[in-house]
Design goal:
The chain has 5 helices and 2 strands.
């Protein structure tokens, strides 16, 4: 039987063909269902496929089949120099797997693929929001300042007037 690498499944047979990874299947299935994906969507899909493959590799590590080293040892001398002790660290594979699952979910949501039942696309969030949205220059802000609902509420509480 051929050697199996993390994230890949090997079929038995005369040619010993490797089956497609989960990322390859995801890419194939979504491009067949949605052949009109934009270049931006294809880029997000590529990252989602890589994340799916990474999750398979992490799952192999968690199941004991992985190729990553989980434990690291080092010998550390005591301050007085006579004795040494061993420090062992274990990589946080489960935490990384959870983070990758969240990333995969976010990437798939970012594709905004239409719902199969209704044909509607999820809500589109245009551009950066909140702290990530760049603000205008000092003069521009003074000339066209808008007041948020939070600023209006604070002004009412303080007895002032914040209108715009």
């Amino acid at each position: 039987m051929a050697k199996k690498t993390a994230g890949q499944r090997v079929k038995k047979g005369p040619a010993l063909q490797q089956s497609p990874t989960r990322g390859e299947r995801l890419t194939r299935d979504l491009t067949e269902l949605h052949p009109d994906l934009s270049p931006e969507q294809l880029l997000v899909l590529e990252e989602a496929a890589r994340t799916a493959d990474r999750l398979d590799q992490l799952d192999d590590v968690i199941a004991g089949r992985g190729v990553l080293e989980l434990m690291h040892f080092r010998s550390v001398p005591e301050r007085d120099g006579d004795e040494r002790h061993v420090v062992m660290t274990v990589d946080a594979v489960l935490a990384e797997a959870r983070q990758q699952q969240t990333v995969l979910k976010q990437l798939l949501a970012a594709l905004r693929l239409p719902d199969e039942a209704t044909g509607k696309r999820p809500q589109h969030r245009g551009g950066a929001r909140g702290a990530y949205k760049p603000s205008g220059g000092v003069g521009e802000r003074a000339a066209a300042r808008t007041v948020s609902s939070l600023e209006r509420a604070r002004a009412r509480r303080a007895g002032g007037d914040a209108t715009s």
